[in-house]
Amino acid sequence: MTRDVATLRAGDTVDLAGNLMRAARIRHLPVIDGDARVVGLVTHRDLLTATIEHTAEMGAPERARYLRNLPVDRIMRTDVRTVPIDTRLTDAANIIVKNKYGCLPVVDREGRLAGLVTEHDFVLLTIRLLGRDAA
């Protein structure tokens, strides 16, 4: 689980989301409220879809301006499944696989974001358990 999770607020822009994903080399950004509760999720696919759907007919300058002003709450997923911090790894893995999720936000007892479990985390765990180094 990643504990130091990059996050967004509902009013942050799609442009910022894309910049964060590129800089941190991540594919998922939880959207949190002022109490750090998960209210949405933006994925790299959401960004691609939004860019294509909203800006397909625009020129490059107009597209850039539009994305600098488009808030993530217009494109984020709001039906985000979370799990409590004491969830067993096998249960989290089953939720990810059965629902074809790329990530699963983990919340503390107060419902605040505590971390993020991703498919990548399970791949790294598998590599470690097999006694191999990740390249």
What's a quick, concise take on this entry?
By secondary structure, this protein is of the alpha+beta class. The protein is built from five helices and five strands, in the order αββααβαββα. It has a single domain (14-129), classed as Roll (CBS-domain), CATH 3.10.580.
| Total of DSSP H or I helical runs spanning 4+ residues | 5
Helix fraction by DSSP (H/I, runs of at least 4): 40-55%
What is the domain total for the residues?
A: 1
Q: CATH architecture, please?
A: Roll
Q: Provide the succession of SSEs.
A: HEEHHEHEEH
Our measurement of the CA-to-CA distance between the termini, rounded to an integer number of angstroms, reads: 19 Å
Give the C-level CATH assignment.
Alpha Beta
- Strand neighbour order, sheet with most strands: 3-4-5
Structural class: alpha+beta
Radius of gyration: 16 Å
Mean pLDDT: 92
Structure notes:
There is one protein chain. This protein has five helices and five strands. The chain is α+β, with helices and mostly antiparallel strands and about 140 residues long. It has one domain (about 15-130): CBS-domain, CATH 3.10.580.10. Strands 3-4-5 form a three-stranded mixed β-sheet. Strands 1-2 form a two-stranded antiparallel sheet. The longest helix has 12 residues, at about 45-55. The protein is globular, with a radius of gyration of 16 Å. The model has no long low-confidence stretch (mean pLDDT about 90).
